[in-house]
Every structure is written in structure tokens, then in C-alpha cells.
Amino acid sequence: MRSDRAATPASSSWGRAARTARRWSSSSWSSRDGPRAALVTSRLILEYDGRAFAGWARQPERRSVQEDVERALATILREEAVALTVAGRTDAGVHAWGQVASYDHEAVDPAHLNAVLGRDIAILDANPAPDGFDARRDAVSRTYCYRVLHRRTRSVWLEGRALWWARRLDRDALHACAALLPGTHDFTAFTPSETDHVRFQRDVLGAGWQEDGELLELWITADTFLRHMNRILVGTMLE
Length: 239
What we know:
The chain has two domains: 3-128, Pseudouridine synthase I, catalytic domain, N-terminal subdomain (Alpha-Beta Plaits, 2-Layer Sandwich); 141-238, Pseudouridine synthase I, catalytic domain, C-terminal subdomain (Alpha-Beta Plaits). Helix content is 22%, strand content 32%. The protein is built from six helices and twelve strands. β2 (27-30) and β3 (34-37) form a beta hairpin.
């Protein structure tokens, strides 16, 4: 499974959101315009199976996680459109187990959203967020897990959730490579040359391989990731 998870300062800000939820649900009054809802920011935590998606971000004529969730929110909230901000965009085929997104509107019961979403997306939690919360700007780190199945035969159960690698593998070399990743580095060589990125340095907070028999997992945490960065890192280590 290849996943992207955004870590936010949830322990403090989430509690503050809960304590002030009543303030966000209030309204202000304008004698000219009548009742006007106060600006509300809400936060979603969701997971999804990325195999059927072209990635998180909207793409013309291709299914995306963003478009599916925005459409579900607009349906429940009876709005023409609802725009999401996400902590970390995922590429095609990448799964997520703790993705964080925010939008400017009231929080919606996850059960209601899940009722109109496909079975490959699940909203785990939805709550009011602190004033000015932005899922992308307020994320302090992202964690990514890349799984490799090292054995002679493929797995039916891990298809689409782990890279099948039947060739020889030097596990000591994998651990040595991962040990070099923490720190601030220029990862220009680990992203496609055609890119919208303008900054190629990334701060890797931690990286390491975990082994469970035939299954290996690279866990890496950084401030942000470049497009395809982790896939290319793993491919380079395996070669």
C-alpha cells in the first residue's frame, strides 16, 4: 500500500475547535441583506483506495478524489460547488489512510457523506476547524509508506497495494540507503523533469525500512514531497 498522510497540530487546534463550535454555527444580521451565515471552516479526515483514481487533484475527463468529495459535499450542503484544500495531493494509484482536507462551510455528518460517495472513499471524521485553518498550509509533515512484496510469485491479495519484486534484493543496502535520507536535500533527480515545482529541497524528518517476512515497507516523513518522489526513491534503492 502506498499512502500519504498529513500530520497537523491536531492535539491543540482540534480541541480548540470543539470548544468554540457554537461560535461557528452562529449567524450575523444585516438589515439590508437579511440573515447571513458566519464564515465557517471545517476539516475532514478521509481514507481512499487510489486504484481507480487519476490522483487527488481534479483532471479533465478523469476521475479524481477531489472531484468526488467536492461533489458529495455540494450535494449534502445544497451548494452549487464546494472547494477543498488538501494537506498533500496524491498521485494516481496512491492510497490514503489519514488524508486531511478543509473547506469553507459547516461540518457534515460523515455518515451522510459516505452515503453518497463510492465505496473506495470513506470520510472518517468531520469537525469545525479553528479560524483560518488551511489543511495545506497548517500541515507540519506528511508520512508516506511504500510497500514491496519480495518473493518469487505474485500475490492476489496485495495486487495494487504492494510492488511485487521477484528479483534479488539486498536488504542491507536498502537500510543503508534509507539512513541517508533524513535531513535537507535537493531531490531534483527524484521527480519528473516536467513539473510545476519551483523548490526542490525537502526536509526529510525520518525514513526507514520495516520488514515483515516477505513484505517490506519504506516509511518516510517529510515537510512535503515532490511529485513521484517516493516512487523514484524506492525504484532507485531496489536497482
